Amino acid sequence: MALAESYILNEQHVAVLASPGMGHIVPLLEFAKRLVVHHGFRVSFLNITTEASPAQTDLLHSPSLPSGLHVIDLPPADVSSLVKDEMLVVHRLGVIVEESLRCLKSVLIQLGKPKALIIDLFCTQGFDVGKQLSIPVYTFFTPSAAFCAFTLYLPTMDHEVEGEFIDLPEPVQVPGCTPVRTEDLLDQIRNRENDEYRYYFGHVRRLCEASGIFLNTWEELEPVPLKAIRENPFYQKILTPPVYPVGPLIKEHEPVTEADAECLAWLDQQPPDSVLFIVLGSGGTLTAAQLTEFAWGLELSQQRFIWVVRKPTDASASATFFNVGGDANDPKSYLPEGFVERTRGVGLVVRSWASQVAILRHRSTGGFLSHCGWNSSLESMTYGIPMIAWPLYAEQRANATILAEEVGVAVKPVKGDGKTVIGREEIERVVRLLMEGEVGKVMRSKAKKLQESAANALNSDGCSYESLARVTKQWKDLAAPI
Ligand code: UDP
Questions:
Q1: What pLDDT score does 3 carry?
Q2: Which region is the signal sequence (predicted)?
Q3: Alpha helices, H only, 246-345
Q4: In testing the pocket of ligand 1, which one of 31, 249, 356 has its CB within 8 Å of the most ligand atoms?
Q5: Which parts of the chain have pLDDT scores under 50?
Q6: Greatest CA span in the chain, whole angstroms?
Q7: Is 258 helix (H, G, I), strand (E, B) or coil?
Q8: Ligand 1 centroid to 251 CA: how many Å?
Q9: What pLDDT does residue 7 have?
Q10: Which domains does the chain have, with CATH numbers?
């Protein structure tokens, strides 16, 4: 980690620490880029390399990063004896982060003690190191403001509720916010007895220790939870740090592979707003039965599509979280027989990973079937694309509800009582509804308005830009570290 002296001594230097997973790396990297490009900072982006996916490595070593942004690969930690195949995502992530961050203090000292450390939600070891080195530590909260309000309320719930949250008779009344239905509660808090909850709660309960919380949202998109966090007496009583909505920060440049180039060339041949883009986030996978129904429903809808497929698994909906981009299976081996041939010309099947933003911003893309990860949701709104909400894990069910019921840019397929999969007729129905129905038109027009509002927020006189400028000014005004 040899760094030029001028770099180490540069006073406008901050460090950003992301936990693994594209949903975390992507927004923190965009945040780091903005600090460099718009606010004149040098940024050390600390990359946890242990079990990094191929897609993460490609993104962080892309030649398009601005020159003031330095990706510092933290030495890989040996987690072989600690990580087990059956571990759930956050538990596994927690172990990887814990082991990888043992070097954090010495790395920050070597970097000449940056003016601030901005950490991801799952890297709260950063608070302890920040305290030891007298560096202010901020959190970059990657999900929505609504979910931030919920998270800040969770320690109170944990204290007050006996038994499981999912057994509560009523929706959770988050102070000042729309109540959250128990069926929308995130996976990590559905069983308080397991290690997944222990790791999750261990991190999120520390959110109030931050000097400030950056949120990947903007004022016009989420006025209610933002107002609640700032003004509701509950949040004042728990000494909530200031929140700074700085979004939507989404991927701008991404590596375009040969397969992506093919997709884009195919899109060039299609009519405007005519193609449904289907991808379930960086880790999303369907069960074999659901994948089969999905393929049939899509074919029956007769709509144009690009579908990023992954080998199905019945084990976990987030099966590819740690190895996305590394799937070498031939889709024909798991899609219904003849699907690829029958849909040739109408649709494209892409293996494992595609340049999502490049496809969303193409004029021929008119709908997005998404797992409703917050980054994917922001990317869709940024390009004015309405959605079919197909939540799978984490807080995605709550995001889907917000997008469908509050923002009005998504439709949710209905599973039907007692069913384990969403049937092909229902899939056909929602695809048609979005791509050729009146409801789809209304959602598209709402999405286009949001696109404008998102762009305004990021302009140099926009609220998200100003919000970040307020904090960077404070950092610039700080005395040089001793
Ligand atoms: N992504 C992509 N191509 C894919 C799948 C995902 O570029 O084939 C990107 C997507 O654009 C987004 C991120 O991966 O920036 C996924 O983040 P999100 O929060 O939506 O979901 P998560 O992966 O955390 O479940």
A1: 46
A2: none
A3: 258-268, 288-301, 339-342
A4: 356
A5: 1-10, 481-482
A6: 67
A7: helix
A8: 10
A9: 47
A10: 4-251+457-477 (3.40.50.2000), 258-452 (3.40.50.2000)
The number of residues making up the chain comes to 482
Closest CA to 244 of 57, 381, 77, 116: 116
Pocket of ligand 1 (CB under 6 A): 21-23, 26, 251, 279, 281-283, 308, 353-357, 373-376, 379
- Which amino acid is residue 288, in one-letter code? A
What the block records as the tokens of 437 is 């129905």
What's the confidence (pLDDT) of residue 1? 46
Here the tokens at position 46 are 């600390």
Say how far apart CA 75 and CA 102 lie, in whole Å. Answer: 10
pLDDT value, residue 319: 59
Contact 41, 118 (CB under 8 A): no
Q: In this structure, what token pair is assigned to residue 45?
A: 């982006």
CB atoms within 10 A of CB 72: 16
- So what's the pLDDT on residue 2? 44
Question: Coil, strand, or helix at residue 327?
Answer: coil
- In three-state secondary structure terms, 349 is strand
| 8 A C-beta contact, residue 377 and residue 387 | yes
Residue 120 falls in the annotated catalytic set: yes
